[in-house]
Design goal:
The chain is built from twelve helices and two strands, in the order αααααββααααααα. It has 296 residues and is mainly α. The radius of gyration is 20 Å and the shape is globular.
């Protein structure tokens, strides 16, 4: 083992971690400014799960995306640091665009900011601040977007401008795929997913958010790899998107029957609001997504 090279790698890794932390801090500062009518830190300190989830998803999404910038062959410490910094700013822009898309399209008429500080009354009379279901879905959108950006940024080949355009293009295509998958999930589900989410049903939030992360993982697998030309990469992305959606929806039904043999997911969500059951089912769906992504 080359001790000097190992220590140099440790030092470079430390710098990369610092850059990642700085971008997470930048995202926090921008989100604090965006929601300056209420203090997110105070809500988190007071146990507001909705605000906690959405912030956690934002931070995880950024880290997942940035890890894609560190993948592949090194071009030298200073060049890698420059590209990581540029990618970081692109990722921040994409994440806040993702939040806008989630707020106004994915959840439709639901205002995420208002829902996350709204007071809800439970059947037992207890009151809760914040729509946890909305916070979960927003967090999952960030994480799914992080996987998509990871795949688009980690690709090799092509010029720097091609890599930059590729990241933006596949971010847009990925968001369209997530929106379409969210719509399909709503169509095939025997209850109104968005109504349950608006009524602060965390199980419904886990159900929708879980499949979004699963698709993000599959799309990451389809985007990763060397640049082979715009037409080839876009066609490949479209084919894998359709394949991934079909496979995830198919295995979602199979998992429902296998892991919940005495009941159905729809019953656990709509009637029982069973968070534990949805965590198990959606974790299994994401496990399938990981296998699909690595098999591509």
């Amino acid at each position: 083992m080359n001790l000097a090279a190992t220590l140099a790698n440790f030092g470079q890794g430390f710098v990369y971690v610092i850059i990642c932390v700085l971008f997470i801090w930048l995202a926090k500062s921008l989100d604090d400014f965006r929601t300056k009518e209420f203090d997110d830190d105070v809500h988190i300190d007071d146990g507001n799960k909705a605000v906690g989830f959405r912030r956690a998803g934002l931070y995880l999404g950024i880290a997942i995306a940035l890890s894609g910038a560190l993948a592949g062959e090194s071009k030298g410490f200073w060049t890698d640091t420059l590209f990581l910094t540029i990618d970081g700013f692109i990722i921040i822009g994409c994440m806040f665009s993702c939040r806008f898309i989630n707020d106004f399209i994915m959840l439709g008429h639901i205002d995420n900011d208002k829902e996350c500080i709204k007071e809800f009354s439970h059947d037992d009379g207890k009151k809760e601040i914040g729509n946890t279901a909305v916070g979960i879905v927003e967090a999952c959108m960030y994480i799914a977007t992080g996987f998509i950006l990871n795949g688009s940024i980690s690709g090799t080949g092509g010029s720097f401008l091609q890599a930059l355009f590729s990241a933006i293009l596949f971010f847009i295509l990925g968001q369209l795929a997530l929106l379409l998958f969210g719509l399909l999930y709503e169509v095939i589900t025997p209850f109104h997913v968005r109504d349950e989410i608006k009524n602060n049903n965390p199980a419904a939030g886990i159900g929708l958010g879980g499949v979004l992360i699963a698709l993000g993982i599959v799309l990451k697998g389809s985007i990763s790899g060397p640049f082979t030309g715009w037409s080839n990469d876009i066609i490949s992305f479209a084919l894998y998107t359709v394949f991934g959606m079909v496979m995830l929806l198919l295995f979602r039904m199979i998992i429902d029957r296998v892991l919940l043999p005495t009941t159905k997911v729809a019953v656990e969500v709509e009637q029982d609001k069973n968070v534990a059951a949805l965590i198990v089912v959606q974790s299994a769906v994401n496990a399938v997504a990981i296998v699909i992504a690595f098999s591509m």
